[in-house]
Amino acid sequence: MSKCIIFYVSQHHQNTEKLLKQAIGGEPLAELVPLTDAPLPDLSQYSLIGLASGVYMGEPHAAILAFLEKHRKDLAGRKVFTILTSGSNQKNYSKGFRALLENCGCSITGSFQCKGFDTNGPWKLIGGIAKGHPDAADISDAAAFIREQIKTALPSDTR
Length: 159
Fold this sequence. Notes:
By secondary structure, this protein is α/β, with parallel strands linked by helices. The chain has 5 helices and 6 strands; from the N terminus they run βαβββααβαβα. The radius of gyration is 15 Å and the shape is globular. It starts with a strand and ends in a 6-residue tail after the last helix.
C-alpha cells in the first residue's frame, strides 16, 4: 500500500485527462483510472488517492460526487488530494470539493486547479473560453503538484 491512484472524469474537451496524462508522465508510483472503468481497483491498495474532474456548474462532475457517496466509508481517514480544471478559473472551486471530502472523513493533502478550454452554455456562442488550456505551464504546475503530493504522502522507501 504505497502507491497513488488518481480517479478522474474528463468530459467535453478532455481537459482533465490531457492534464493528468501529461503531468503524470512516467511517474511509476501514480496510476490514472477513469471513473468510467469498471470494476474500479480496491482502494485499500493505495496510500494516496487523487480525485480529478472538470468543473460543471460550479461543482465536480456528478460521477465524482457519486463515487464519494458510494465510497464514503472506504475514504474515511485516507489521504486525498484534488485536481480541477475550469473554463473561468476565477473562483476557488476546490473549497466546496474539499468540504465534501472532509464530510467523508478524508485527510486532504492539497488541491490544484487550472484553466481548461470550455464551450459549455453561453461560452459556445463566443467560441469558448480558456482556449489552449491546459497549456504547458498548467501541465508543468500539475506535475510539480502531483510529485509533491507523492513525496510528502508516500513512505520514503517507496520512492
